[in-house]
Automatic annotation (TrEMBL):
GO cellular component term of the entry, any: cytosol
Function: Catalyzes the reversible phosphorylation of UMP to UDP.
Protein name per Swiss-Prot or TrEMBL: Uridylate kinase
Primary localization: cytoplasm
Gene assigned in the entry: pyrH
Domain Aspartate/glutamate/uridylate kinase, residue spans: 9-218
Pathway where it operates: Pyrimidine metabolism; CTP biosynthesis via de novo pathway; UDP from UMP (UMPK route): step 1/1
Family: Belongs to the UMP kinase family.
Keywords attached to this entry: ATP-binding, Cytoplasm, Kinase, Nucleotide-binding, Pyrimidine biosynthesis, Transferase
Binding site for ATP: K14, L15, S16, G17, G57, R61, T164, Y170, D173
Organism (species): Pulveribacter suum
Length: 240
């Protein structure tokens, strides 16, 4: 039987930057971002408070080809700025679909977006606005997965939803190993001991310590976000 009420009141959605590319090689695909945003909007209409941490992998990563030979911290700041661009595009698409979104940046660029201030973020969520957290943690050498764990814990989210291109956590990277099999659920300790590369160990450890579960699912599957919010068994659950 399918539940009629959402299973969660407040969620932290981690959106992979690469998921915004659709079938393009780089950047933001218009149809893709509109479809993803429509799914987020649908969930807000169920009364769920939604905060988003957006990645930057569709534009720039600190540890990637484009940053070869660069100072790592400088490259990471570029990666964080890439997430600000994605956040602006997301908020714009949300506004166009009738939902008010507020972008809050971990790096101070006040002419562009407001800075992250926790009580303000909580107020926006209570008001039914979508909060888009940009610039990751604001620190180099981290990732937006860690930012998702951090912001998720700070805002008291009940669940971190890692929306990505694969449909869960596998025994190995399914993009590289076709024999890899998917877990329905596993503990944070298992994920760390097995060195599963779906998320970095810092993000896993923070969620484990805060007892904040993560559900990994594919955002390319229509309706998957709503199914997760309704408590259905989509993707992989990682728990403490
Ligand atoms: N054990 C595993 N199970 C599932 N996916 C894995 C695993 N190990 C590595 N991966 C890879 O991890 C990727 C998930 O990372 P994702 O695209 O969400 O990147 P991100 O760094 O969080 O975001 P961005 O796209 O913004 O850089 C998948 O595309 C998958 O290929
Ligand atoms: O807290 C953070 C978050 C991100 N970065 C840099 O941004 C890029 C893009 O983030 P993804 O998590 O890969 O989508 C990342 O490669 C880092 O270079 C950061 O430095 N600190």
């Amino acid at each position: 039987m399918t539940a009629s009420q959402p299973a969660h009141k407040r969620i932290l959605l981690k959106l992979s930057g690469e998921a915004l590319m659709g079938d393009d090689a780089f950047g933001i695909n218009r149809a893709t971002i509109e479809r993803i945003v429509a799914e987020v909007v649908e969930v807000t209409h169920l009364g769920v408070q939604v905060a988003v941490v957006i990645g930057g992998g569709n534009i720039f990563r600190g540890v990637a080809g484009g940053s070869e030979g660069m100072d790592r911290a400088t490259a990471d700041y570029m990666g964080m700025l890439a997430t600000v661009m994605n956040a602006l595009a997301l908020a714009d698409a949300m506004d166009k679909q009738g939902v008010t979104a507020r972008v809050m940046s971990a790096i101070d660029i006040q002419q562009v977006v407001e800075p992250y201030v926790r009580p303000k973020a909580l107020q926006y969520l209570e008001e039914g606005k979508v909060v888009v957290f940009a610039a990751g943690t604001g620190n180099p050498f981290f990732t937006t997965d860690t930012a998702a764990a951090l912001r998720g814990a700070e805002i008291g989210a009940e669940l971190v939803l890692k929306a990505t291109k694969v449909d869960g956590v596998y025994t190995a990277d399914p993009m590289k190993d076709p024999t890899a099999t998917r877990y329905a659920r596993l503990t944070f300790d298992e994920a760390m001991v097995r060195n599963l590369g779906i998320m970095d160990a810092t993000a896993f450890a923070l969620c484990r310590d805060q007892k904040l579960p993560i559900r990994v699912f594919s955002i390319t599957r229509p309706g998957a976000l709503k199914r997760v919010v309704m408590g259905e068994d989509e993707g992989t659950l990682v728990y403490a």
